Amino acid sequence: MSGSISYTLNSGNTIPKVGLGVYKTSPEVAENIVYEALKAGYRHVDSAALYKNEKEVCEGIAKWLAEDPANKREDLFYTTKVYDDHHGYELTKKSVAESLEKAAKIGYIDLVLMHSPKSDYEKRHGSWKALQEAVAEGKVKNIGVSNYGVKHLNELLAYKDLKIKPAVNQIEVHPWLMRSELCKYCHEQGILIEAYSPLAKARKFDDPDLQTLASKLGKSAGQILIAWSLAKGYVVLPKTETKARLVPNLEVFDIKLSEEDLALLEKPNEYFTTGWDPTVYPLDDEK
Ligand SMILES: NC(=O)c1ccc[n+]([C@@H]2O[C@H](COP(=O)([O-])OP(=O)(O)OC[C@H]3O[C@@H](n4cnc5c(N)ncnc54)[C@H](OP(=O)(O)O)[C@@H]3O)[C@@H](O)[C@H]2O)c1
């Protein structure tokens, strides 16, 4: 099943290449769209404490698990994030405990991320210590970061008590925000890139080069963008709360983009962000 096609993380665990994003998916909608996504073949969901839908996302997963003994928890991958206002050792412990409580019906969390580097050295360090302990305690399987720039990763990798390297760095990346240097650095460090806002929030669908490729390959603009992330070797997290888009957004594994196609699509000199960009957040000595 295409939804279970996976990469292997530096932890040795696997992660399905396509995950359903649920940012801005309201609690009222979350349970059902997650349930429908799992029925449609998705095996990976990306939430966050900030999204205020963790409980409902996990309800959707639990409903699917309860439906058929063939539906197995170990085949699924559930991610959540610690938000910036919960940086520091104690607050991160609390945030993880709260996320675990909301995930009680599904037993454990596959991946917990630092949502961004937006605090200070002391707090980031304390958070990482708490995340490492969560893995040691067994209820969190992998840990990683989001929105970290090279400088934040360098800081983390130099922690004296570093036991676990981040498994992933979840960043906004698409053909209009290539972040080549950061992606190369992560690749060299064995940190997998997760592409968020991979559809550029549907704001670039009228790009003429994207339209040309979509017509040539007989695919939609959205499918081409998801295939682009896969061609780069990234996990890709398209968000939809439209049931009819779930299956098309997963039917992307047969799309082969040639070097020529990639060159047409990619705009390495553009810097098109659709939201925040904490990868440039200053270190303490830059403030
Ligand atoms: N770590 C971070 O800081 C961070 C930041 C942003 C996002 N994320 C993660 O990444 C996920 C995806 O990013 P995102 O939600 O910002 O944006 P996105 O996935 O780039 O785009 C989502 C938008 O595209 C629409 N859409 C989805 N599939 C489509 C299709 N096939 N054709 C046309 N429109 C389509 C959706 O509409 P409908 O829903 O109405 O279908 C929605 O408006 C998030 O949900 C979240 O899990 C993480």
How would you characterize the overall build of this protein?
The active site is at 51 (proton donor). Residues 24-267 form the NADP-dependent oxidoreductase domain. This is 2-dehydropantolactone reductase. It is an enzyme of class 1 (oxidoreductase). The structure is a single chain. This protein is α/β, with parallel strands linked by helices and 287 residues long. Helix content is 39%, strand content 15%. It has ten helices and ten strands. α1 (27-40) runs parallel beside α2, α3 crosses α4 (121-137) and α7 (208-217) crosses α8 (221-231). The protein is globular, with a radius of gyration of 18 Å. The mean pLDDT is 98. It binds NADP nicotinamide-adenine-dinucleotide phosphate (NAP). The site of NADP nicotinamide-adenine-dinucleotide phosphate has 27 residues, from α9.
Give the name of the CATH architecture.
Alpha-Beta Barrel
Which geometry do the CA atoms define? globular
Specify Rg, calculated over alpha carbons: 18 Å
Give me the number of helical elements: 10
Largest sheet: spatial strand order: 3-4-5-6-7-8-9-10
Enzyme class: oxidoreductase
EC number: 1.1.1.358
Protein name: 2-dehydropantolactone reductase
Catalytic activity: isatin + NADPH + H(+) = 3-hydroxyindolin-2-one + NADP(+); (R)-pantolactone + NADP(+) = 2-dehydropantolactone + NADPH + H(+)
